[in-house]
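Sample intake sheet
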Amino acid sequence: MKKIVILFILLISALTSIKAQSAITGTVVDSLSGAPLAKATVMLLRDGRTIHFVRTDDRGRFSIDVQQHTGDMFQVTFMGYAKHRQPVDNDNTIRLTRQAFQLKEVKVQGPPVTMRRDTIVYDLTKFTTNRDNNLKDVLKKLPGVDVEKDGQIKYKGQAISRFTVEGLDLSKGQYNKLTDNIRAKDVKKAEVVEHDQPIKALRNRVFTDDIGMNIELKDSARDQLFVTLRPYLLADDPTHVGGDAVGMQIGKKRQMETTVQYDRSGRDLNNQFSLFYNAYDFAPTATMPQWHSAPSLQSPFDAEQLRMNTSQAYSIDHLTKDKDDAENSFSASYSRNVIRQHTQNVSQFFLGGQSLTQTTEDRQIILRQDAFSIDYNHHINADSHYGDFVVNGDASRNDGITDYTGGLSQKITTPDMNLAAAINQTYTLGRNIIAWKSTADYHHSKGKFDLTSQSDSTSATANSYSDELVNNLWHTAHSLSWNRQYGRWHADNGLRFEVEDLNVAHENNVLLQGTLSPTWYYNDDDWRISFDPGLTLKRFTHQGATLLLPHGSIFINRNYGNRSNWSFSINYNESTSAWNDIAVSHRQIDYRTWIEAPDFVPRSRTLLSLFEYNYKRPIYQFFSNFKIYGSRLWNTAAMDMVITDGKYSYTWIHHNSLSDNVNASVYMSKGWSAIHLKTNLALSGNYSKGQQYSAGDIIDYQYLAYTISPELIFAPSWMEIDYHGNFSFDRSKAGDDWTKTLANWTQRLTIISTIRNVDLSLSGVLYHNEIQDSPSANTLLADAKVTWRMKKVRFSVALRNLFNKKTYEETTYSGVGIFTNRYWLRPRELMVKVQFSL
């Protein structure tokens, strides 16, 4: 009987095993985002015939109770995706490709925005139209993503910290080189990575709040060399020609870009070289102080309307990735600018007494700027080893010539040269991470200031002045850190040492400093908590000062899945003034301003707290962010300001002071890609109070400002409406009296009508500015443009500044000042431009 029972049990087990082995299981997912596809139809084909079919569950899984035979095939269909066949194997993960198709005259498409853990994936083909010329035109339409006027890219109002194309960083933080020149028709998708950790050796070990963006190109554009030529003719006084040429090749292993540009239309060619993040994680380098107030282009709005320029720029960037994933990159650039501008200013200060102190200025400037830079980087990013070796150098010369009403002329020349070499290495050894960083840099500058008067011989003698300061700055910094993991807890201990030697005015200023920074943090799926106290010891040898500066922070983050999270942090930091404040005892920085340095090293303490809440629903294309932060600043020194006969005199005094600041902001972005609509709304408010010193008197001030910024982009294939508004209100109080509230706003509207291959565009900007003690100023600037799009050519004719506006005027507040400025604009111009895409 016992043998019969055992035999029966074995028989049941064998049948169960056979039943289990006959079930064929698998998963159906989106090939772009990896998201599971529910209710997809899965058919099992044998010898070309369907023998069984099922539908996937909510997680994209399926199971077919059929014994597998050699040669069996899956056939999967799902609305919005291409039909897919593949052999039955051990994995059975079936990836479907999105496809638009016609079904009873209804166009069906896959979702344009998806989410995979901390990665938001935008299908750029769903946002691109034939009107779009470059990548920047496409990015501005993405919900949750904003592109600033200078080219900075933000996600939910926060600047991204890494921008790559095909996983490689060719631009090294210079976004405009790529976003202005990658063609819109060549892009496939954009991936926004929250908590971006680009260092493989630190992934799942060191958590970050950085945001990265990666652009993927279409297969037809990857590794292809393309050239873009953009010549133009500008009917001006005098009429002239200009333009640029770009050669680019983007791949996963090799990337290059070469640009040549010449412009007199008001464009800022230097924005191609604007750095929006530090591409290398190195020990810090030093910065050469500036002793004279070199003039610069003043621009309260689009600088292209104000810049009278003759500019040229050249650059080359080359990056390769070898079989071991090591990268080698080389970059070189040169730019030259000659810029002219005419401005007027009236400044009123509350410096005690019964009346305001007022100064005026009428100036015409000519800026001559030359800049050259070269950079080489060897980069390793392996699973257990990360490292960079960088050598770079740059040289520049800025000449600012300013003529003031009354015959006074000022010239400030600031040539400088900077050389640096840096290395960093990170190794993972089990639960330990060892990292060291070293840098050595040298800086040379020879600033010269000349002031002359043409009014008469007596005043020329009185006003003529010349000063020259030769600077040599040597700096080196080294740091070592050790990170060890204890389950979900991490301990990180860092040590840094720096030496800085500044020789100026025939005196050596040496700074020795060491920093100890232990950190403890906890990380799991729901919580992140960190605590990092630290201590810095500084020794200023020439000033004879030794200071012990504590710092530290506490950070708490709570994560609610992939939809929302909040974080709270509080930071305390003590710091000292830089060389610019203490190394030269007395100097004249421009024609009417003198600064007296302190005979001590000023010290400041800052307490900052921040609360932030994020919420997103990518499937509904909704993104939001709320922030509120407050800070208090304590200083051991104050700047005493005295104005006499229009001359500014600043003297550092030993006096304890404090200032407070509170800021709150809300950002919301919602997209409806089915109707090609994106909306944004940003709200912010700021309150600050502090103290200003004048002739020994203390003046308490307060400042209040709030801003409302709506945005709407509606861009179907037949037209585009682009609206941006910025409504700001601010007021200040010095002593007992509040100023009147200034309501300043800017409204931008662009309307494009598309008729086949022709785009008719009309754009306008309305500036409303309330002027102190005078009627409000309203300035309307408008441009009209016609673009004819052919297969590889774009031909456009634009009439700029339609109403031929001559000037623009505005008033702004500070804590104790009211400033009214007037700017002269570029005249009406006709531009003819052709773009060849080869």
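Comment: The chain has a mean pLDDT of 88. The two ends are 88 Å apart (CA to CA).
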